[in-house]
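Repro:
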Amino acid sequence: LCRAYNHFVLVNIFSKAYSPKTSTTDLGIPYMTHLETTVSPEYTRGTVAEVYEKIAADIEAGLPLLNDAIYSVPKYHFNKKAGYAFATRFYLYYVKDDKSNYDKAIQYATVVLTENPTAMLRDWATVGALSPNNSIRATAFINVSEKANLLLYSTSSSWGRIHGPYGLGEKYTHNDMIANKETCKTISIWGGYSMLYFSIPSYQGLPKVIMGKMAEYFEITDPVNDIGNAHVMFPAFTTDEVILNRAEAYTMKKDYTKAAADLDTWIHAFTKSTNTVTVESVNALYGEYSEATGTGMKFYTPKAPTPKKALHPDFTVESGTQENLIHAILHVRRILTLHEGLRWFDIKRYGLEIYRRTVYNNEITVNDELKADDSRRAIQLPQSVITAGLEANPRN
């Protein structure tokens, strides 16, 4: 499972998203199945399809071997629920023409969520009632006793400092304009921003809009000089993500009532809303905009942003209810996983076009754009890897 997960992350960063149309020829990554025993070994990248086949084989071989009893703290390892959560995400990304992998995503998500998903989701009301102080709320968010956290790991990172409530990283940040127009302060299926349990604090003089999830934990390596290494604890898998993944799989299987039911379960954990999410309510909010009735939502443009971005996936998403539910799921997943890095994978999977913009005095200037077919969606390999002989990603 560890091998499968690490290659899954790498292939989704350094290769194109899985596509039923092109993955048999798209460049993949080397899949490491044994330790190196020679100097300067030669590797080939293979294809994305080959990498996904090997990940699937490792997942299916690994799941039956998981045994929570061998760990003193199971959530710091691939425990059973974490394994099935990973399988859910993987099969959601592994799009097959016959849609059979959506069945697997649903099956494995249900193992994690049980027959009572409400009891498995994060207690957002309790966490949201804590002080918005970045360390207090963030420490509770990644607590090992939190039932929603399925796999936690430590990583060396200055994220908690640069993207915390400090005067660092202000030029490139999740700011008020994005929050108000696209993410956590927009109207969604729960209503408005005031419905969130996890309120977003304001910091005077800072342009950042922060959901306090990952604070910094400092490891002192030299007490005399008070120096050391910065770390964050990262929630690799949570039950909240799993239920949204299942809702997406239901949507792609056209089981719209069950998809809406999962969204309804999730919003009542995440927010104070008393709204009932139905297929009709999703269509009314995310459907085609009607000026006459005031229903629906306009599509995003870089100078008039909204949460609804045009979809350009390599698989079929039908206009109407299916597309509207996907827009809703992409929107709420973007809010749920804010600062966690998963949005980039949704951008790649659904061909969402993004723009580099400069905002000054409320004026927006577009400096660059990343179209659905832009080769930069596959991040370039490190120069040291290219120098060692591995084929570089092509560029337009």
